[in-house]
Amino acid sequence: MDVKRLSPDLSVTGQLAPSDLAAAAESGFRAVICNRPDGEGGDQPGFSELEAAARAAGLEARYLPVTSGKVTDGDVMAFRGELAALPKPVLAFCRTGTRSATLWALGEAAAARPLPDILAATKAAGYELSGVVRRIAAGGRVPTEHADQFHSVVVVGGGAGGIAVAASLKARKPDLDIAVIDPADVHYYQPGWTMVGGGVFEPAATARTMASLIPNGVRWIKAAVAAFEPERKAVILEGCRVVRYDRLVVAPGLKLNWAGIEGLAETLGRNGVTSNYRYDLAPYTWDLVRNLRAGRAVFTQPPMPIKCAGAPQKAMYLSADHWLRQGRLGDIAVELYNAGPVLFGVKEYVPALMNYVKRYDANLNFNHTLTRIDGPARRAWFSRKTEEGGSETVETGFDMIHVVPPQQAPDFVRVSPLADAAGWVDVDPGSLRHRRFPEVYALGDACNAPNAKTAAAARKQAPVVAHNLLVEMGHLRGAEVAYDGYGSCPLTVERGKILLAEFGYGGKLMPSFPAWLIDGTKPSHLAWLLKERMLPPIYWKAMLKGREWMAKPEKAAA
Fold it and tell me: Which residues form the Beta-lactamase hydrolase-like protein phosphatase-like domain (predicted)?
């Protein structure tokens, strides 16, 4: 008896024998539902036999037969009714458990449970329900026929990667039929939020309306994605609208899992708890920094992968630099709690960073993952990996704490057929084409290419995707090009100086400038000017406009 739990009230399994019912009762179940019609298989016991065994074991039993592949709306409602009436927990079964899982999923959809949550539960139980995803999106009902939208290329996501790739496609083939799907009204220049938190940029400088950035000739579909059907070349929107495509580009960014730290969501933006990873909170970071006179300042970094792995440290360096310049640093204890084992993943940049750690007398705590926070009490708890391989809880107080939340692919990506085992879009790291669905490409934070998740990476990825997609469609001649893993992390080590970290796959250094101009392993004022004055206009006026300055793709190695 291979039991799969879908919810606290319901588990499902394959065909039960009468002898299994006593074991089910011993496991704590109080009722069973049979979803398999009698006589479906030659080795199948009849329900009357199963019902007798269930009653002998003290279980209530219900017979709700469903023909395989023909789950009706009435079946779903009947299943929900039985589930509501029976004592809990309930064990439902059919030949493999799939019909029972489908009935539950469609019933949850009718109760307005979010589609990604439903698919996550069934996927975790081992049931692939891609064949009914459109019906789940329709609230559990059989969707009516309707005219689908169609576009030659559909781009999911209107962030840095999505807008850049749409612009790069248009630059190469102006008459290409492209749609961008994104529900947001505002597009943010997220690399600027570190500077907002350091009192350098105003928040408004990092925001533009989405409508102003959609490339000319590109259709903007202002809606949220619910699911993917790559076998049918379709994207399902919330409300069960369907958009079909010839080619799909997936660039929705990632999800900041604020709920992944107990107590965090309730205290963000007050009680000294802040984060530069949110537009509305970055100004609060600067308020805390400039008003802190003494005490303990804590900065956290979650497990990888995360968006801009240097950002947690940037917040610390800029804050400590301000306190040093104001003569307050001697009264402020600076602490970095890093879930990882090292300060920075590319060793060539660590010596310069360690000089600043010493300059600010910052205490480094490696292998510490923030798990809980109590804002009013100004306390935080971390799980620390021990040398023996175990873990222990570490508690600390704070006067201000800059929190970086754990991060993951968006829910509708994680539960889709496009995802790898970790939930990221599964692509070839060179071509950025999906490994199993050749009509699908991905770039930016949501794909599983082993590069740093930065806007600089998306700037280099967009031309690669645009070129390869058009070559594969027959719109461009020439060979495929390859993304080399380039990413950049301008580490703001003090106000007026930056360590310009640039590297590719495997941590290979990939400087954009000669060392006599900018040596990325040393702090530089010129690199600061690049970050402060040049990169924002490059982002707005080049990257998002299809102008590929210093981003032309190179041919793939033979």
Answer: 2-110
Is residue 94 part of the annotated active site? The answer reads no
> What is the overall mean pLDDT for the chain?
93
Does the residue 142 lie in any domain?
no
Backbone angles phi, psi at 458, to 5 degrees: -60, -35
What is the DSSP secondary-structure string of 140-176? TSPPPP-PPEEEEEEEE--SHHHHHHHHHHHHH-TT-
What is the number of alpha carbons within 13 Å of residue 199 lying toward its C-beta? 16
Domain finish residue from 137, 165, 181: 137
DSSP-assigned letters across all residues of 398-437: -SEEE----EE--HHHHTSTTB-TTSSB-B-TTT-BBSS-
Residue found by looking up tokens 């220049």 in the block = 189
Residues 12 and 128 in one domain: yes
pLDDT of residue 143 exceeding 70: no
Catalytic residue among 34, 94, 240, 308: 308
Do 416 and 518 fall within a single domain?
yes
Our answer to whether residue 447 is catalytic in this structure is no
Catalytic one among 94, 240, 447, 489?
489
d(CA 47, CA 224): 44
Tell me, yes or no, whether 361 and 482 share the same domain. no
The predicted-structure confidence for 201-241, as pLDDT tens digits, reads as follows: 999 999 999 999 999 999 999 988 888 989 989 998 876 78
Check whether residue 234 and residue 358 sit in a common domain: no
Tell me which residue range forms the domain holding 59. Answer: 4-137
Q: Which residue has the tokens 């269930």?
A: 54
